[in-house]
Amino acid sequence: MARRRFPEDRNIFAWSAAPNQHVLYSVNPGDALRFFLDQALTAPADVIHLDGSPLFNRLLIFQTRDVPLIPEFLGPPDGTTVLYAQLVSPLAPAAAQQAPPLLLYAQSNARLDALESGASTAAGQLAQEAIQRQAGDAATLSSANAHTDSTVANESSARSAGDAATLTSAKGYTDTAVSTEATRAQAAESTNAAVITAEATRAQGAEQANAQAISTETSARTAGDASALASAKSYADSTVATESGRAQAAEQANATAISNEQTRAQNAENSLGASVTAESNRAQAAEAQLLPLFGGSVTGDLAVTGRLTAGGYALPVVMPTGRRPAYRKATWSQQFQTGHSWTVGGSGTASSNVNDTGTFVRGTQSVRVTTAANAVQSQVRKLSQPTMDLTGKMIRLILKVDDVTHLDRLEFLIGTSTFTNYFRWTVHTHSAVSPNYVQSGEWVTVHLNWADVSASGGTYSLSANGTPNSRSGFTDMQVNCYDDGTGAVTYHLQAVELVPDTAETFPNGVITISFDDSYASVYDLARPKMDALGFSGTMFNIAEAIGSSGVYLNTTQMRSMQDFSGWEMGGHAYGTAAHAARYTTMTEQAVADDFRKLRSWMVQHGFTSEHFAYPGGQFGNTTDGVPVDQIAARYFTSARSIISENVESFPAAMPHRLKAVTGINDGTSIGGVTVSSLTATGGKLDRCLNNGDWLNLCLHKIVTGTPADSTEISQTGFNTLMDAINSRGIPVITVSEAMRFYS
Fold this sequence. Notes:
Elements: E1 2-5, E2 12-16, E3 23-26, H1 29-38, E4 55-56, E5 59-60, E6 81-85, H2 94-97, E7 102-106, H3 109-134, H4 138-160, H5 164-222, H6 226-287, E8 309-310, E9 313-314, E10 332-334, E11 343-345, E12 349-356, E13 366-371, E14 378-382, E15 388-389, E16 393-401, E17 407-416, E18 421-429, E19 443-448, E20 453-457, E21 472-474, E22 476-483, E23 490-500, E24 510-516, H7 520-533, E25 538-542, H8 555-565, E26 568-573, H9 576-581, H10 588-604, E27 611-613, H11 628-632, E28 638-640, E29 664-665, E30 673-674, H12 675-679, H13 684-691, E31 694-699, E32 701-703, E33 712-714, H14 715-728, H15 735-741
Parallel strand pairs: 24-25, 24-31, 25-26, 27-28, 29-30, 32-33
Antiparallel strand pairs: 1-2, 2-3, 4-5, 6-7, 8-9, 10-23, 11-14, 12-13, 13-23, 14-22, 15-21, 16-19, 16-23, 17-18, 17-22, 18-20
Helix pairs in contact: 1-5, 3-5, 4-5, 4-6, 5-6, 7-8, 7-14
């Protein structure tokens, strides 16, 4: 004796008393039928049959044909309630009606209640079908049979396509057909009983009429009215004959109706039996093609609709290698732990805590300051420190702003004599419309290069080409914060550190030349010039745009640039619609889907770059609050923005927020950054050369005429820029080369 509980449906149990002998019961009759189709019919079809759906004392039972179950083999499980039931349905085969009482089990009173509810529902369905059957609704039966055939045909097509969802729907239709036929049979019996009752009522009326006739005849005799007596006799004879004819006709009609119903029931059972057999065969064939619920293997291709997940996480199609730049160790560090002795001041400060243990990202505390909402300077500083040498060093800040809504700017100063002499950097200027490096509620890392110095005072100064006159002897450090005057800002300072700068690796600095949006003009007009100078560029591509028209690159051109000129083919977006909308207007799932499809497309076409540029440079939050740069990190090793308040360092402070100068053009009054400002004395090319930094230049389309907007640069202007880089001897590398260099 075997007892089995099936995990795919917790409401179904089965016992086997002997080979080919089964008892099933379920809270829901439909569940039991589906189980029968999916599991029970795996035994030989000539042994296991479905003997209707009889009700046993309000419990649904299926049993094998011909071989009665032996109760003593079905020992009750622990903690169950034992019930006895006797087959009572007149629709079951005669052999089954003679079966001995069956021993059944239910796990709890709650299960018995559920079974009773299922039985009551089935009884209501049987009553309604009886009405339809007595009415002789052959069209309805035909429609049911046709519906079953259609269901079988549809499921056959679905099974061929491996569509498990359609298979489930087909089984549901078959369940409905079985229930409908049983309901009609029950309704026919109820209607037949009603007809018999009506005929009995008519017969009783006839008797009453006859009695009345006899009474009338008696009165006529008494009055000696022979004529009335004859008339009464004639009326009585006529009434008796009429009622007798009606009764006989009713009996014949009733017999015909019963015969018709029996024929319909038999036809329905035959049709449904064939459907059940076909259904079970299809189910077995389909199950052989499906991946088991608890693991297994699949032969051939496996198609997945929606996300493929593991352990609750959506899997990327292609995952990055994780080859990030090595983290630079600080040569000097202030992490604002107990005893740091830095002070908070400035008339723009409303409150502060220099030992805030509630918010920190290193150690056990940080400095917290809230501004006074007056657009005046708030500061955290330390004066009269031992002298520091910043030659070959850059400054690393780790900070957080709780809410950037009212943030105006952040600054850093280094100097001597209480900043009588100083150099000043603009750490961040907040924008209400452009992408911002500092986001609300996030700890960020900022690198400040010597090329980024924005002002000087006292004995400190910058030369015409942007070179500071001193890089050592500093004793004072200070962080400034300004709100916009309409609301307060709370900021946290975690670390001020010195780390080796880009000049340690590239004494003349280094430049990356990148192109967004996959324009074919880059292949036609920019590549020849860069080939001549030995420069390789980085192209950030929109997959759906590739090959869509002559305006955009095709894969043949991309492979030529990659394989024969050393270019890098990075990613910019998969869909043109996603690129136009920007990721910050989409949900996390939509952004992740675009990343996943883009990465898959790149690898499929032989472009193995792990680097990305955000559409519009925007890496803020998705519409459901997920930072886009965190999604990008699942698929790419780095991601470039178009923030240029500071140039990038080597290695980058935050690889998924790479900074770049964009909008480079040689037009007139069209915005962006002009070629002349980059190549001028003291411009960004000179600062890169003399101070050492990683300068990312972002371009888009090359045109032969006059640029129409800041995304265009003429071929003449582009050639001028390339020549200026070459004449300064600044090396040009791709993003991949930069990342590999420090991996």
